[in-house]
Amino acid sequence: MMTVKEAEQKDVESLIEFLRKAWKEAGPGALGWTGATEETMRHIASHGFLSNLLDRDDTRVFIALNEGQVVGFSSNTRLGDELVELSGIIVLESMTGVGIGRRLLEHSIEAAKGDRYTGMMVKTESFNERAVNFYLRNGFRREATIEEEVEGSNVELVKLVLPL
Ligand SMILES: CC(C)(COP(=O)(O)OP(=O)(O)OC[C@H]1O[C@@H](n2cnc3c(N)ncnc32)[C@H](O)[C@@H]1OP(=O)(O)O)[C@@H](O)C(=O)NCCC(=O)NCCS
After folding, report:
1. How many folded domains does the chain comprise?
2. Which atom of ligand 1 is found nearest the CA of 30?
3. For residue 150, what are the β-bridge partners?
4. How confident is the model over 8-60, as pLDDT tens digits?
């Protein structure tokens, strides 16, 4: 049975375990992991970083649990009174394609509606077709193609939006 819930401080260790496993499965250069290096991952998959993230007023993190293990996460970050960013969504590579991403996205959307946002925005690499198609299938529409610097290199990103 898979469940999705909002992450709490007591979930930090399970999140660390998830991130290490997800990074090991994906590896450098994997789609959706632009900018991730051993060093950034050590920083992100740490107690201090995740504990701070869960404490932030502008961010909410959701986790998918399967048999007590975290198998995916999504996060919402406030951009303004009206707009929220889907600031992250990752499912363990070995668990993709069975609806976990969709369940996480639904949870993020419901939470964003509850928080009275009127739109959700997401940015992803143009070449990450799997993610772009995932967002399009789930109601987002393409808004723009932009260039941004991610960890020192320029990447082309697609910006997609979903009215809430
Ligand atoms: C993008 C990502 C989050 C999607 O997550 P996912 O769990 O694979 O997504 P879903 O399973 O909900 O949907 C993907 C496919 O599974 C299919 N699927 C299979 N069984 C399903 C079920 N029971 N319910 C819903 N969809 C199902 C969907 O139809 C879809 O197939 P399609 O592409 O042929 O239409 C995931 O691929 C991922 O983590 N990628 C790496 C990180 C990344 O790129 N993140 C986004 C960067 S911003």
Report:
1. 1
2. 41
3. 153
4. 999 999 999 999 999 989 877 777 777 778 888 889 999 999 999 999 999 99
Q: Which residues constitute the domain of residue 143?
A: 2-163
Give the mutation target among 24, 41, 74, 96 for probing the ligand 1 site: most ligand atoms within 8 A of CB: 96
As a whole number of angstroms, the distance between CA 145 and CA 43 comes to: 29
Which tens digit of pLDDT belongs to each residue from 121-153? 999 999 999 999 999 999 999 999 999 987 778
CATH number of residue 147's parent domain = 3.40.630.30
**Does ligand 1 have an atom closer than 6 angstroms to the CB of 116?**
no
